[in-house]
Write a structure and sequence with these properties.
Elements (H helix, E strand, L loop, with lengths): L5 E5 L4 E6 L10 H16 L5 E6 L3 E3 L4 H7 L22 E5 L2 E3 L1 H7 L3 E5 L3 E3 L13 H9 L1 H10 L3 E2 H7 L4 E3 L4 H15 L2 H14 L4 H16 L2 H11 L15 H4 L7
Parallel strand pairs: 2-3, 3-5, 4-6, 5-7, 6-8, 7-10
Antiparallel strand pairs: 1-2, 8-9
Amino acid sequence: MSDDMVLWDLDDDGVLTLTLNRPERRNGWSPELEARYFARLNEAADNGDVRAIVVTGAGRTFCPGVDARRLESVAGRPLDLTGRRPFHHPLGVPKPMIAAINGACAGVGLIQALLCDVRFAARGARFATSFARRGLPAERGVSWLLPRLVGVENALDLLLSGRTFDADEALRLRVVSRVTEPGQVLAAARDYARDLARNCSPRAMAVIRHQVHADLEGGFGAAFGRALAAMGRFAEHPDFAEGVASFVERRPPAFQPLPAHFDAAQCVREGELP
């Protein structure tokens, strides 16, 4: 629907583009946008045709943070998150997520970009954490996410100052990994996602995404043990045989789609590979 807050565009390769679609409010974050975005991610997770997800914003912005009207309405009141999913909900999606940051990306909008796996930014896009300048602490787990990407000193610089920085500095700091010319960011992100969709096993990508985030909290030995358990399960799965055969035969692979309700954690724990 053209008036949907999060547009769904799935191509023939399995690349799904989700577009935050509140251009009249510069894609400002709201509980309604949050609920619709997370619902769309749930749909994508259980749709076998979706192999990779690109997230972008309608118009000239990605998401500049909480909608200004909502900020005014909630300032000075107790925080109420009743009925809302955890803000890190995207980390549980078993499919690769790529951000195509086409414009302003700040506050909670920046956090949602950081929750994606790979970030493309248009040259000229502007970033900020903003929290300290609104009288707020580091919100929604960004104090966990940001230092792991940019290091402690750079994270403190961006969080303490809340200053604005551009896409080229974001690239130097490793907030993003690619910068494109304006107008090319969505196409570049889709091309990257298309390569994943065509050539990488959906099961393997789901488990890799889980492994990277889960292993941040433990030692190497535990991570190695979980990887070994997962390898044992993948060794007997048809995707491994197909990956080897397609490589030897020099042809595109035909990996199986990811089943609905796939549990990546199970693959590094116990039980059969779903």
